[in-house]
Amino acid sequence: MSRASEWRLLERAGTLVAQLFFVAAGVYLGNRADAWKEERSHREAARATLLNFRDEIRRNRARLRTTHAVHAALRDDIAALNASGRPPKTTNEFAARVHLNGLSPSTFRHAAWQLALGNQSLTYLEPSLAFAIADLYENQESLARYGDITLQNVVSPTALGQNDPLPLARTLQAYTVDAATYQEPQILAAYDTLLPRIDSAITRLRN
To answer: Per-residue pLDDT for the chain (207 aa), expressed as one digit of tens each?
Structure first.
């Protein structure tokens, strides 16, 4: 093979290598661009989800603070009534002496939680933060169910049809002690711990 032929062969080989390089580079850059777009989409979805959670948790915290004050006052009134040594003789007397104006069961908004489950955006959050949010909503649901069950017992035909205040007093005492002493303070503390974590995560997602 002449030297000219060798140069032509090397030139073709070089051209082929260059073409392959540019094709590979194009595929790589295209994949990187797609990955960047997908990552940005996930970050935007995570930020929107956290903004929804922050708004909803703030509202639930404000609502729970109000109902907690009602339950704590009722708990203390029942405790004072028990310590007085003068048990009420009727349900009306019991209600008047403990200032009973309704049970005010705890209720919570959960639209952000339902949306996050529906669009699977929880998977875009930091695992520890997603778990903490899930735990909070589970505790809220547990407290809400407890309040619903207690309310059903209080306003049932059997309870309303009797004039003996003892069953009503025991039901309300058990509920207010559990809710106002343990469950509600724990959830309120969880709000105060979780909200700064959500704020911090939102700030990081802006960068």
So the answer is: 566 666 666 566 556 655 655 555 555 444 554 444 556 667 888 999 999 999 999 999 999 999 999 999 999 999 999 999 999 998 889 989 999 888 888 899 999 999 999 999 999 999 999 999 999 999 999 999 999 999 888 876 565 556 788 888 999 999 999 999 999 999 999 999 999 999 999 998 876
Cβ proximity of 19 and 75 under 8 Å = no
Q: Which residues contact 129 (CB under 8 A, 6 or more apart)?
A: 197, 198, 201
Which residues in 122-131 are b (16+ Cβ under 10 Å) and which e?
bebbeeebbe
Q: For the chain, what's the residue count? A: 207
